[in-house]
Amino acid sequence: MKKTLIIMLLCSICISVQAQQRQQDRKNPSMLTYPVISTRTEIVLPQVNGYNVIKADLHVHTIYSDGNLTSSARVTEAWQNGLDAIAITDHIEVRPNVGAFETYLADNIKVKDDDRYKTDMNYSVNGARGTANSLGITLIPGIEITRSPMEVGHFNALFTTDNNLIHDEDALQSIRNAKKQNAIIQINHPGWARPDNEFTSTAEAALAEGLISGVEVFNSYEFYPEIIEKATNLGLYVSCGSDLHITSQERYGNYGMFRDMTLILAKDNSLEAIREAMENQRTLAYAYGDIAGSEELLKAFFKAAVSCKVVSADSKGNKRVQVTNNSSFPYVITFPGFSTDITLKGFTSIMFTTKDSEIPVTVTNMWYGDGKHPSTALEL
To answer: CB neighbours of 85 closer than 8 A, spacing ≥ 6?
Structure first.
């Protein structure tokens, strides 16, 4: 009986709290309204080598090319998803929505015969600046050079100053035009719609001219493990772009996942600091629980996120050890004495007994090459 009363009391409290959420409208007191509060998923990551980890999506599309959201909505979505920075990278050559707009205007709005509509390729970026400023999101201006995946490939130009001046019939010249604006250029999804992950002849030519600074090793649900080492050897930063056309809720939220992101080790989330970090290859790529990048940076990231301490010890030298994940990301770890990998979820701990002064581990959801996972030691 007592237990039943307690449950009923708790239920009444919950109902009371819910009822209090309704309020009278200021202009129409006879109408009740519900407060709508936008919430953000906070992703907690450690400082690494003295740098903050900036969570960025360097590849998204809006309704102004072939995406489903406006650029302002993309920024709001990024804030809700826990990101710190976003690059708007609409296609130059692929803009089906523009044609739909023109058809709508031609069919539904009376205009003079000599009126014409010209697309401003900076509009999607400029239209998001106010929202970005209000939410504290760093907006990286960009554009995607979009040509045949077999012969040319796709390239993101980031930190652009005027997207209207980039296009040229020659794709390589388009890349050069972006570089003239001091843009940072990356190769997107190198294996998409191709029989292999080899760079296209255009990408190779751009690399030879020193025009390329980065490459995607993750794109949406695509993963290119062999590209990681190639990026390291070529001195390119690694990135992960969601390449969102649909909403992030459809791609990630419905499955309880963090969205794809590039982890940028920077002093702060200013454009200048983000750019400096990318130019110096201080990036990691995150997608679907996997993290990719250089072996050295992966080890530093893991050791900054995971702590280890002795909880108790006996007279025989056996030590009871607690390993704690102090970050939001999970780590899949091979521990000595365990027959299977252990998944150390975000903000959880595990315990085991050892006589050793350090614990050798391999983190199997971290990748620095095809089938290559970093090994390190947790010191007690």
So the answer is: 54, 55, 56, 57, 78, 137, 138, 139, 140, 264, 269, 274
Enumerate residues 6+ apart whose C-beta is below 8 A from 223. 217, 287, 290, 292
What is the per-residue pLDDT across 148-179, written as a single tens digit (0 to 9) for each?
A: 999 999 999 999 999 999 999 999 999 999 99
Dist. CA 100–CA 187, nearest whole Å: 29
Assigned token pair, 169: 């019939």
Residue 34, judged by CB atoms within 10 A of its CB (0-12, 13-18, 19+), counts as exposed
Q: For residues 94 and 152, what is the distance between their CA atoms, to the nearest angstrom?
A: 15
Q: Are strands 85-88 and 52-60 parallel, antiparallel or unpaired?
A: parallel
Partners of residue 218 on adjacent β-strands:
223, 240
- How many Cβ atoms sit within 10 Å of the Cβ of residue 68? 15
Please name which of 222, 58, 64 lies closest in space to residue 149, comparing C-alpha atoms. Answer: 222
Q: Residue holding tokens 């102090």?
A: 326
Sheet order of strands, 306-313 included: 306-313, 319-325, 349-354
What is the model's pLDDT at position 326?
Answer: 98
CB-based contact 87:62 (threshold 8 Å) = no
Q: Does residue 166 sit in helix, strand or coil?
A: coil
> Over the stretch 281-317, which tens digit does the pLDDT of each residue have?
999 999 999 999 999 999 999 999 999 999 999 999 9
Pairwise CA distance, residues 103 & 99, whole Å: 6
Where the chain has pLDDT below 70, the residues are 1-20, 109-118
Question: Which residues on adjacent β-strands are paired with residue 264?
Answer: 54, 283
Question: For residue 57, what pLDDT is reported?
Answer: 98
Global pTM value: 0.90
pLDDT of residue 7: 47
